[in-house]
């Protein structure tokens, strides 16, 4: 199976985080929000690890709602695993790679994608 860089990103992120901090990635923003990713709660912080996305999911509803086809990498990026959001940089630009934290979060992601893409669609 062809594995794009985005599929390997969560594990690379976890490896780098663990090397730097000595524990699983941590998030204060996600503390108290249920997820299969949670491995430990510490004070006001949750430690997390990526988990397989179950049940099988797709972004077909987004495609159908907007009558468009999304890039295959987008399907892979958002439906292969649950994970916490990941901070990164592109050149000198800091960014956050939003992830799917839970099954409920996946529903919100689809709604947000539809809303965003509707505003970008040209008549």
Automatic annotation (TrEMBL):
Keywords: Cell inner membrane, Cell membrane, Membrane. Pfam families: Syd (PF07348). It comes from Serratia fonticola. Gene3D superfamilies: Syd protein. CDD domains: Syd. This is SecY interacting protein Syd. One of its GO terms (cellular component) is cytoplasmic side of plasma membrane. The keyword Cell membrane applies. InterPro entries: Syd, Syd_sf. The keyword Cell division does not apply.
């Amino acid at each position: 199976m062809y594995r794009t860089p985005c599929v390997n990103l969560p594990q690379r992120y976890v490896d780098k985080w663990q090397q730097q901090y000595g524990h699983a990635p941590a998030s204060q923003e996600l503390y108290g929000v249920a997820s299969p990713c949670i491995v430990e709660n510490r004070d006001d912080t949750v430690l997390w690890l990526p988990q397989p996305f179950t049940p099988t999911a797709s972004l077909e509803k987004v495609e159908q709602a907007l009558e468009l086809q999304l890039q295959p990498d987008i399907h892979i990026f958002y439906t292969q695993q649950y994970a916490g959001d990941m901070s990164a940089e592109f050149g000198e630009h800091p960014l956050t790679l939003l992830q799917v934290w839970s099954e409920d979060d996946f529903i919100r992601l689809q709604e947000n994608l539809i809303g965003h893409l509707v505003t970008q669609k040209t008549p």
